[in-house]
Write a structure and sequence with these properties.
The chain is mostly beta strands. The protein has one domain. 0% of the residues lie in helices and 67% in strands. The chain has strands at residues 2-8, 11-22, 25-36, 39-45, 48-50, 62-63. Strands 1, 2, 3, 4, 5 and 6 form a six-stranded antiparallel β-sheet that branches. The model is unreliable at 52-62 (pLDDT under 50).
Length: 64
């Protein structure tokens, strides 16, 4: 499932894709661009989780 978003506070935008690997697990890749000290900064995260109650947080964010 593909998605995209735009936020105003703080100004940021991004897009990504969630892949459901089983009824209880998924993986995701997301690219986000936000303003940091007045300059655009882009990063990508690829969290993975099992079950809908799992906490998803950026893993190895890296500027593009």
């Amino acid at each position: 499932m593909k998605f995209s978003f735009v936020c105003t506070k703080p100004p940021s935008s991004g897009e990504g894709q969630v892949t459901f690997t089983s009824p209880d697990a998924y993986s995701m890749k997301m690219t986000t661009t936000s303003m940091v000290r007045g300059k655009p900064e882009k990063w990508t995260c690829k969290p993975a989780a099992a079950g809908w109650a799992a906490t998803v947080a950026p893993s190895n964010p890296s500027p593009a």
